[in-house]
Amino acid sequence: MEIYFDQWWIHHRLFYIDWLYTWKLALTFKQKFMAKTSGELEKEFIETAKDKTGRSLEQWLALVKASGVDKRNDIIEWLKKGHGLNHLQAQFVAGMYFNNGNPVYIDENSLLENQFEKCPNMRTLFDAVAENIIATFQGTQLIPKKTYLSFTAVREFAAMNIKPNEIRLGMDLGNRPFDEVVQKSKLTGPMPRITHMVIVTDDTQFDNSLEELLRESYNRSHKK
Fold first, then answer.
1. Extents of the domains making up the chain
2. How many CB atoms neighbour CB 2 within 10 A?
């Protein structure tokens, strides 16, 4: 009887350890890849610039001013190649430099919340799909617009309209034929290059086939 109890106890402890590890892994994943808006990322950069880059925002802005470089893209490249900033950090510095030192994306959080004013029930589905897109495609930013949500990595490669019972996920798929699943885009807001859309009603739809469609759009946006 004592042997069976020991075996049960060992099994119970192993099960608990496995459950705890899985829970911590899931929590870490969510914290790392949770869908953050550009406004949230910009705020985080401002608060941590000194620790992460060695200079405060004010010092970076002064450095850019003294450089004599006067075009936005040139400033971004100069900061990346000459001073070791990553693309997102350089983009924030350049953006705020041309905005008189003020945050560029300060109103984005309210723009995001406005998308769910008439359909709050879609927020959980949006979070799940957005987190998957950001986790899967390196360098992706979620940028809320007035009428839609943009997913951008160098250029916009995906867009969303939030509807009461569905999410319209738009992509740049060029001349791909339309079918029952991959339809002609009916999104409001994004550029004409968002040509196709998939109707998403459940987070299980983010499978290999949808990921491949998004990857095609992502790759097309990097070729232009």
1. 38-97, 108-223
2. 6
